[in-house]
Amino acid sequence: MFPLKDAEMGAFTFFASALPHDVCGSNGLPLTPNSIKILGRFQILKTITHPRLCQYVDISRGKHERLVVVAEHCEQSLEDLLRERKPVRQCTKQVNKIQALALNVCRVGLGTE
Q: What domains lie within the chain, and their CATH numbers?
C-alpha cells in the first residue's frame, strides 16, 4: 500500500440484495448469499494500487447482508483539482480497469448476475 500523504481513512456501508428464503440452486444446495459473493470478489479490488488512486483497505460483512468497506479518502476530488487547473496525469487504462472490476462486484450485489 502506498503512503497516505494527504489522504485519510474512510468507511462506507451498503446492503447487498437479499435472496428469497427457502430457495435452492439447480443442484438442490442453498444459494450463496450475495454479500459472500461480493466479499470474495472484493479481494481483487484490494490488490490494485496506483499512486493517483485511493486504495481499498478492507471489507467486513455484518448482519442482514450489510457490507462495510474501508478505503482511503481524499478531501479533494478530481473535479476540484481540475477546477483549480492543477496538472493531473491521465491514467485511463488503470481507471477503466478499476471501474470494470467495481461494476462486476456491484452487479452481484444488485442481483443482476
A: 8-17+29-105 (3.30.200)
